[in-house]
Amino acid sequence: METTLWQVDAVTPDRDTIDAAARIIKNGGLVAFPTETVYGLGANGLDGRAVSKIFEAKQRPADNPLILHIANKKEVFYLAQVVPLLAQVLIDAFWPGPLTLVLPKRNIIPAEITAGLDTVAIRMPKHQVALALIRQAGVPIAAPSANRSGYTSPTSAGHVLDDLNGRIEAILDGGSTGLGLESTVLDVSGPVPEILRPGSITKEQIEELVGPILLDPGLSSATQAPKAPGLKYNHYAPHAEVVLIDGESDNVVRRAVEMVCGYALAGLKTGLLLTDETWDKVEKDHQAAGIQVAYAGRIGSRRELNKIARLIYSELRECDKAGVDIILTETYEDVGLGSALMNRLLKSAGYKIIK
Question: Taking burial as the number of CB atoms within 10 A of a residue's CB, which of 153, 226, 244, 269 is the most buried?
Answer without folding.
Answer: 153
